[in-house]
Design a protein that fits this description.
With 368 residues, the protein is of the alpha/beta class. It has a single domain, classed as Aldolase class I (TIM Barrel), CATH 3.20.20.70. 31% of the residues lie in helices and 16% in strands. The protein is built from 10 helices and 14 strands. The strands form 4 sheets. The protein has an 8-stranded parallel β-sheet with strand order 3-14-13-12-11-10-5-4. A two-stranded antiparallel sheet has the order 1-2. Helix 1 runs parallel beside helix 2, helix 3 runs parallel beside helix 5 and helix 5 packs parallel to helix 6. The radius of gyration is 19 Å and the shape is globular. It binds flavin mononucleotide (FMN). The site of flavin mononucleotide has 22 residues, from strand 4 and helix 9.
Length: 368
């Protein structure tokens, strides 16, 4: 696992679009399923959790759905209603009061869902292809329970436009809620990725077929979000070569094509969710070099990073910062622990998803 150390390039500052990060130890987006039901509203418990982790160079929030049909798990927060914006305001205020910075991860799960999560509406996707996966619902005991996802409904061209508009509304809401940045969730087999992938996108219109056409939805989302706020407040997460939610293909050419388009649009960052934390291959340095050449903004790496891997790749100038997931769940003061070489608490997977303060806000800091 992660090896603590001192005097690292992880503690140099970094410009990311309009924002300056004081260190390069970022908190990865982590779904924790503790929003208030009904309404999927961010709450004071969540504010305390994020406040505790404000020492991160940047916090990226858990995925937050841009619309009711974009939801794919129980008790995930949304960012489409006024009540949700008020809830997120508690969180951004708490993080800023501790001197931190926070980005909202804008999420639409597409087909990785279930009618019971979307208010009875059939989940949507690029195409109506049969889909074998499981969604996380709330069981009778209030704890997560898995159920089969149904075959999704294909979005019409008009519905694609209204979905893109939902992303723009989410970006405006994020700005109004006091976020520093937004991260479009383009990874892990969710809606944006479902358009990119040939296994999930069988369309014959301008959104399917060629690489350029399959990238169209992602770029329309990027254009809508940057127009709603600003390119220097916008980044995107992608997961090339990752096998998530039924998508597993040779998509490095697509990643490089997208990187060029993101660069032309002045996006602040690309956040790589790398495949090797979930059993996939490790990204190769040759790919990282091509990505660096194709894209002008900041590049974040994430996924089973050790201290040595972070140092090596930042040292080679192949990435600029590292987002840590599970270590940040268990160590609210992770940057301080890495800086001082302190021991790390071990994460407890049983309390990752759903529940209360236990396994959420009760991991001890060094000073506790
Ligand atoms: C409990 C849990 C929830 C996650 N939720 C999200 C999420 O909402 N959005 C996302 O892009 N990735 C999500 N991920 C992936 C993490 O952001 C990260 O890429 C992954 O944990 C690998 O990093 P690590 O090895 O440092 O934990 C999640 C991972 C875990 C363990």
């Amino acid at each position: 696992m992660l090896q603590p150390g001192v005097n690292s390039s992880l503690f140099e500052s970094l410009s990311v679009g309009a924002v300056t990060l004081p260190n390069r130890v970022l908190m990865a987006p982590l779904t924790r399923m503790r929003a208030t039901d009904p309404g999927d509203v961010p709450n004071p418990l969540m504010a305390e959790y994020y406040r505790q982790r404000a020492g991160a160079g940047l916090i990226v929030t858990e995925g937050t759905q841009i619309s009711p049909v974009g939801k794919g798990n129980m008790d995930t927060p949304g960012i489409y209603s006024d009540e949700q914006v008020e809830g997120w305001r508690l969180i951004t205020d708490a993080v800023h009061a501790e001197g931190g910075r926070i980005a909202a991860q804008l999420w639409h799960v597409g087909r990785v869902s279930h009618e019971s999560l979307t208010g009875g509406v059939q989940p949507v996707s690029a195409s109506a292809t049969e889909y074998r996966s499981r969604a996380t619902l709330k069981g009778p005991d209030g704890l997560p329970q898995r159920a089969d996802s149904p075959t999704p409904r294909r979005l019409s061209v008009e519905e694609i436009a209204s979905t893109v508009a939902d992303y723009a509304r989410a970006a405006r809401n994020a700005r109004d809620a006091g976020f520093d940045l937004v991260e479009i969730h383009g990874a892990h087999g969710y809606l944006v990725h479902q358009f990119l992938g040939t296994a999930s996108n069988h369309r014959e219109d301008e959104y399917g077929g060629s690489q350029e056409n399959r990238a169209r939805f992602a770029l329309e989302v990027v254009d809508a979000v940057t127009a709603a706020w600003s390119p220097d407040r916008t980044g995107i997460r992608i997961s090339p070569q990752g096998s998530f939610n039924g998508l597993d293909e040779d998509d490095l050419p697509m990643a490089l094509h997208l990187a060029g388009e993101f660069s032309r649009r002045g996006l602040a960052f690309i956040h790589l969710s790398e495949p090797d934390w979930a059993g996939g291959p490790a990204l190769q340095d040759d790919f990282r070099k091509e990505l660096r050449a194709a894209y002008d903004g900041a590049i974040f790496g994430a996924g089973a990073y050790t201290f040595e891997k972070a140092e090596r790749l930042i040292g080679l100038d192949l990435i600029d910062a590292v987002a840590f997931g599970r270590s940040f769940i268990a160590n609210p003061d992770l940057p301080e622990r890495l800086r001082t070489g302190a021991e790390l608490n071990a994460p407890v997977p049983a309390t990752f998803y759903g529940g209360d303060a236990q396994g959420y806000t009760d991991y001890p800091t060094l000073t506790a």
